[in-house]
Amino acid sequence: MKVGMKTGDTLVEVMFAVAIFSMVTISAVAVMNSGVSNTQSSLETTMARNEIDAQADSLRFIQSSYVAERSDGNTDGYFAKLWKAIVARANAPTASVTQYGPMSCSEVYDDESASGLYHQKGFAINPRKLALTDNATESLITDRAKFFSPSTYPRVIYNDDALVANLAESDAQRVEGIYVVAVKDPGSTTVSSSGVDSGVVYYDFYIRTCWYAVGKDLPTTISTVIRLYDPDMQVFGQE
Fold first, then answer.
1. In angstroms, rounded to a whole number, what is the distance separating the alpha carbons of residues 230 and 35?
2. Angstrom distance (rounded) from CA 60 to CA 50
3. Residue 149: CB atoms within 10 Å
């Protein structure tokens, strides 16, 4: 009489099964990490575009509000002062200004960098301050000490939590990874009934961002440009 014997998997079979399981697990984790990274990058890009839109909309609002002031005969109102303070920072139209390609976000904040914030007269607008104060230039952020490399994505950080004494919630504490560069037109002229008046007809505003997305060694940059005409010129009816 033969007694039946139970046989199990061999060592080779066990090792093969473990190897397959490990490969499947590693692949699944890699796919999950890639998905999380792509989702995070997409979210950061969306937030950056929102910040760019906020700056662009603020500039359009300032210009159109100045046009409205002029139509009411007010050439020295709130938005007139703010517009003039902005265009006073405009650069001449040179390739070094209009080109944007930093190798690192830190170049933007390096005072010795020709493509940086300081040498290009960079600024930002605080949308929360527009028309909420008698001092028009409080909406214009030009203090170099308030601009920083981004900790996450480009944004304007406000004093929402009242962390800084004597600052309102609408005050900007920091501007991270975003700034605006104004560039004059290359020498437009306007013709009036009294002759030819040379001047700056329009300004191009380059809105720039720079930050390090998740899993990226090189900086992510998104830039856009908007063109706004100067309300002081004849294109808006000035004689």
1. 46
2. 15
3. 16
What are the structure tokens assigned to 65, written together?
A: 């509000």
Comparing C-alpha atoms, which of 235, 196, 222, 228 is closest to residue 64? 228
pLDDT tens-digit profile of 54-90? 999 999 999 999 998 888 777 788 888 899 999 999 9
What is the value of pTM for the model shown?
0.76
**Greatest Cα pair distance in the chain:** 126
- Burial (Cβ within 10 Å: 0-12, 13-18, ≥19) of residue 2: exposed
C-beta separation of 181 from 210 below 8 A:
no
Which amino acid would we find at residue 129?
K
Map tokens 């796919």 to a residue: 31
Q: Give residues with Cβ within 8 angstroms of 6, minimum separation 6.
A: none
Q: Is 220 helix (H, G, I), strand (E, B) or coil?
A: strand
139 and 55 Cβ atoms separated by less than 8 Å: no
The predicted-structure confidence for 141-192, as pLDDT tens digits, reads as follows 999 899 998 888 899 988 765 555 555 667 888 899 999 999 988 766 555 5
Q: How far is CA 101 from the centre of its chain?
A: 14
Indicate the SS3 state at residue 219. Answer: coil
3-state helix/strand/coil string of 36-68:
HHHHHHHHHHHHHHHHHHHHHHHHHHHHHHHHH
Indicate the pLDDT class of residue 10, thresholds 50, 70 and 90: confident
* CA gap 153, 40 in Å, rounded: 10
